[in-house]
Design a protein that fits this description.
Radius of gyration: 25 Å
Distance between the termini: 65 Å
Shape: globular
Strand content: 25-35%
Strand order of the largest sheet: 17-18-20-19-21-22-25-26
Number of strands: 26
Largest sheet: 8 strands, mixed
Number of helices: 10
Length: 490
């Protein structure tokens, strides 16, 4: 007895069966296809359209994913699909696609997405007014719009220079709740009707924020050394004085400019606490990074360095007091960048890969997976095996250029890191010691990739602050920097 029929192979997990079971929509090789069970045939829905349905910002050496499909109309007459900005509707009868947001998203660089207010529903009703979220890529602000499932045209309900998060819609009342936030505004809960005609704030969790020198966030723009337009968030210190230069902590990973309107709750973890540093006279800079396959280290350098130069030219950053910090993937980038430039007064690299040739053959202890996949296909972006591109593994490894480092470097690892082998830190530290470079290695016993034990997280946060205070503010170095700590065995 036949129990199934293959309709496509090697698709990228983006597929949706219609409510009636008659159709399947799926994404493959940059296009969306519709399979009709009765005819046993597939047809390409998107090939004739001028916009891309593949991720336009994908910079990995792997198959490019699509933007997804939010699902079907309940009668299976049409399916919705996303491009980078707009919402499309594809009728199954072949009458042609409809851009439900009328191209406004792409024209205004604004991403529209359908929001399912009833978690028990798995399709969209015909003629229904749907709630839509918006996000403006240039200005990083959010909003809510309305869109009828039968006709194109998005209508603005609420949009501000804030970040909104939908929480829930009442089951038996015509009201919904959401949060609103920005860098200085805690994400309190708001209540509204579906038209957002009279939003009401119903919580006030952190009024004490106003008592602190929290700082202010603004958007900064520049171009990479390759001419790529980039953005980043500059958090100016509390009680900022125009014309005064400040020490700066640069913290990064990949894209961070979308954090412009995010409230930063003070936490003790693997990264600098932004409000704490801002209230202590530091500026914080969160730059975007665009990568290129085969040259991840060089690409990050070409993006970050002119971004830092931008805030120097703005008169905010003290050029002699700029610190760099990254963890994991950006820990690697930090270790690499200081081999390429001397513009940083100090750097902190948490759990960095320093030698891609030795890391390539290891295992990610948390998953048991060989580490080879991430270099060939994913985050490390080399694009091939060690034997195909040995020169790229060497050229992108900080270890092989440690002799060029003049920046004081603090390396941090937990010795049970389940993502990056902690011997990567040992290799870099031994190189720094051998070359008589200024370096400190913090090892936390029994800790994984991100420190879990609160005493250790607090210890790291305190030492990081002391490290930057010494090298960026000229404060007296504590003994652990000048003399180290004696080893304490079990």
């Amino acid at each position: 007895m036949e129990t199934g029929k293959k309709i496509a192979e090697k698709i990228q997990r983006e597929a949706a069966i219609s409510p009636s079971g008659e159709y399947v929509v799926y994404y493959k090789d940059g296009d969306w296809f519709l399979y009709e069970a009765a005819a046993g045939l597939s047809r390409n829905l998107t090939s004739g359209l001028e916009v891309s349905f593949a991720d336009e910002l994908h910079d990995y050496p792997s198959n490019v994913p699509g933007y997804g499909s939010p699902g079907w109309l309940e009668d299976s007459s049409a399916v919705f699909v996303y491009d980078r900005f707009d919402i499309w509707c594809f009728p199954v009868d072949g009458t042609g696609p409809v851009n439900m947001t009328e191209g406004r998203g792409r024209e205004e660089q604004m991403t529209f997405r359908l929001l399912r207010t009833d978690p028990e529903e798995d399709s969209w009703k015909k003629g229904e007014d749907l709630l839509v979220t918006s996000y403006r890529d240039r200005t990083k602000n959010f909003g809510f719009y309305s869109l009828n499932s039968d006709s194109p045209g998005a209508v603005k309900l609420l949009e501000e220079n804030k970040k909104f998060r939908f929480l829930a819609k009442a089951e038996k009342a015509d009201s919904l709740v959401y949060t609103r936030e920005d860098y200085r505004e805690f994400p309190d809960i708001w209540k509204s009707d579906p038209e957002f005609s009279a939003p009401l704030k119903i919580s006030d969790v952190n009024p004490q924020v106003s008592d602190y020198a929290w700082g202010n966030a603004e958007l900064v723009e520049w171009s990479s050394l390759d001419g790529i337009p980039l953005q980043g968030v500059l958090i100016k210190p509390g009680n900022y004085e125009e014309g005064k230069q400040y020490p700066v902590i640069v913290y990064f990973y990949r894209f961070f400019s979308q954090r412009l309107h995010e409230f930063n709750t003070p936490v003790i973890n693997h990264r600098p606490c932004f409000p704490m540093y801002a209230s202590n006279g530091y500026a914080i800079f969160l730059p975007d990074i665009r990568f290129e396959i085969g040259r991840p280290g060089f690409a990050s350098t070409k993006c970050l360095v002119p971004g830092v130069q931008k805030i120097i030219d703005m008169g905010v950053a003290d050029p002699d007091a700029i610190g760099l910090h990254g963890h994991s993937w950006s820990g690697y980038q930090t270790a690499f960048i200081v081999t390429q430039t001397d513009m940083f007064a100090a750097a902190v690299a948490g759990a960095p890969v320093s030698n891609m040739t030795s890391a390539y053959g290891g295992i990610r202890w948390g998953t048991g997976l060989s580490r080879q996949f991430q270099y060939e296909k994913t985050q490390s972006r080399i694009g091939g095996s060690l034997w195909e591109y040995p020169e790229l593994y060497i050229e992108n490894s900080p270890l092989f250029y440690a002799n060029r480092i003049s920046t004081p470097l603090l390396i941090m690892f937990g010795d049970q890191d389940d993502a990056v082998p902690w011997y990567q830190g040992i290799e870099l530290y031994m190189a720094m010691r051998r070359l008589e470079k200024d370096s400190v290695f913090l090892q936390y016993r029994g800790e994984p990739h991100h420190l879990k034990k609160y005493p250790n997280r607090l210890d790291y946060a305190v030492r990081m602050k002391q490290y930057f205070d010494h090298y960026l503010k000229g404060m007296e170095a504590p003994e652990w920097i000048t003399s180290g700590e004696p080893f304490r065995g079990e």
